[in-house]
Design a protein that fits this description.
By secondary structure, the chain is an alpha/beta fold. It has helices spanning about 10-20, 55-65, 80-85, 85-105, 140-160, 185-195, 215-225, 240-250, 275-280, 290-305, and strands at about 1-5, 25-30, 45-50, 70, 110-115, 160-170, 170, 200, 205-210, 210, 230-235, 240, 260. Helices cover about 40% and strands about 20% of the residues. α1 links the parallel β1 and β2.
Length: about 300
């Protein structure tokens, strides 16, 4: 299969490229390199330096004859979406519509879409929540992801474009960008390894579901051959607060930094944790990486980058 990965030079996208190539597929990458970098790009992938909103994206589709689009490119920072919702919508909605229209025009069979399993549900009624939970996003980022999910349903109904929506929990691991890409594990790791003290927003008791990037790559491989149009949570069903992440990383980096708390940030949920039962039943997928081991591998990656 020939797979186009948008954002394939970024954190998650580059791991997906590696997994697809290892599985014997051809991979084409489109990335504007604002958050991604060329050192992440698998040498066996074909690379196009391009924004997903660009009119020239149509040339890539026509030239490459894509079978499946794995859409990872996004404005993914919740706080930035609060500060600039127009930009958030421009990238996440308008950019995606550009992709979907090109899919229809060039007979793409299917789209794998990276949605959000945290921001899309908003304040949860139950913990962990499943895919039937009401969607009440409390940030522009979550709203745009939900909007794209609705567009995917429309394009499937109107044009027969297949889709699998993967609602990721908080993804972490090697290659995560520590410079404002909404990844607390990467931000804390980098700061601690440089001898600094990370700032914990609010009291640090806000919880998230942390899923390792390698597990996310396996979920996309499973979704590739899934025959129906469907939505799956991709998480661990384990709630972990930010203070625990800080303390684990403090220990793994060999630092003795003090807890440094700042004001809470707008647009952030208090608790977020999702069930993966449906993915286990229908995709045969479940998370394999324990949090401590995943954090250890992430710290090792940043240590290697610093050396």
């Amino acid at each position: 299969m020939k797979i186009l990965i948008t954002g394939g030079a970024g954190f998650i996208g580059s791991h997906l490229a590696d997994a697809f190539i290892h599985d014997g597929h051809e991979v084409v990458i489109v990335d504007n390199l604002l958050m991604g970098c060329m050192e992440n790009v698998n040498p066996e992938a074909k690379f196009y330096l391009m924004d997903i909103r660009s009119e020239t994206l149509s040339k890539v589709f026509k030239l490459e004859k894509i079978d499946v689009v794995c859409h990872q490119a996004a404005q993914m920072d919740v706080r930035k979406s609060v500060e600039d919702p127009m930009f958030d919508a421009d990238v996440n909605v308008k950019g995606t519509l550009n992709i979907l229209q090109n899919c229809v025009q060039n007979h793409v069979k299917k789209v794998l879409f990276a949605s959000t399993g945290g921001a899309i549900y908003g304040d949860q009624n139950k913990h962990p929540c499943d895919e039937t939970h009401p969607t009440r996003p409390v940030s522009p980022y979550g709203i745009t992801k939900l909007c794209v999910e609705k567009y995917l349903y429309y394009f499937a109904n109107e044009f027969g474009l297949g889709y699998v929506i993967l609602r990721y929990a908080n993804v972490y691991g090697p290659r995560q960008n520590p410079h404002g890409e909404a990844g607390v594990v990467a931000i804390f790791s980098k700061k601690l390894l440089s001898g600094g003290e990370p700032v914990i927003n609010g009291d640090g008791k806000q919880t998230r579901d942390y899923v390792y990037v390698g597990d996310v790559a396996r979920a996309n491989l499973s979704a590739l051959n899934y025959k129906e149009n469907d939505i799956f949570n991709i998480g661990t069903a384990i709630e972990t607060d930010v203070n625990k992440i800080f303390n684990e990383l403090n220990q793994l980096t060999g630092q003795q930094a003090k807890e440094n708390h700042g004001p809470p940030k707008g647009g952030e949920q208090r608790r977020s944790v999702i069930s993966y039962q449906k993915a286990r039943e229908k995709l045969g997928w479940e998370p394999e990486m324990a949090l401590n081991e995943g954090l250890k591998r992430t710290v090792a990656f940043f240590k290697d980058k610093n050396s």
